[in-house]
Amino acid sequence: RQSRWAGLARPPPGAESFLDVQRRTVAVFQRLAVERAGQTLVVIAHGHVCRVLLLSLLDGYSMASWETLGLIANLALTELVHTGQTWQALRINELPDEVRQINGDG
After folding, report:
1. By C-alpha distance, which of 26, 76, 31, 27 is closest to 54?
2. Stretch 75-86: mean pLDDT
3. How many C-beta neighbours within 10 Å does residue 9 have?
4. Which residues share a beta bridge with 58?
5. SS3 for 58?
6. Which of 27, 58, 76, 100 could pair with 106 as two cysteines, CB 3.0-4.6 Å apart?
7. pLDDT tens for residues 4-37?
């Protein structure tokens, strides 16, 4: 099955391509990480933006992993740490119990 992001140069009308989102968000994320080095940084973003960031920052992932990573749920928590030259995910797409209860999943 081909991801809907497979057409890098041809996003749906009115939408950004994966590469557009990647260029816009990764640069800002990296700048903030440098400016706030040694501090906890909280980033709140739309699920698709989070997905692009994760696929762009984490080793072993790429745009081709779009379907594998799956949907990033609203209010989900993802925790990244910078380990030298790379980013490592301590948790990805975790939903707090309170959110699960509100959604009827808990």
Report:
1. 26
2. 91
3. 7
4. 87
5. strand
6. 100
7. 554 555 777 888 889 999 999 999 999 999 999 9
What is the rounded CA–CA span in Å between residue 53 and residue 87? Answer: 11
Q: Tell me how far apart the alpha carbons of residues 85 and 11 are, in angstroms, rounded to a whole number.
A: 31
Residue 99: CB atoms within 10 Å: 16
Is residue 86 packed enough to be buried (19+ CB in 10 Å), middle (13-18) or exposed (0-12)? exposed
* Single-letter amino acid, residue 80: L
Q: What is the pTM of this model?
A: 0.83
Closest CA to 57 of 22, 25, 87, 19: 87
74 contacts 47 by C-beta, under 8 angstroms = yes
- 8 A C-beta contact, residue 18 and residue 8: yes
- Give the C-alpha separation, 48 to 72, whole Å: 7
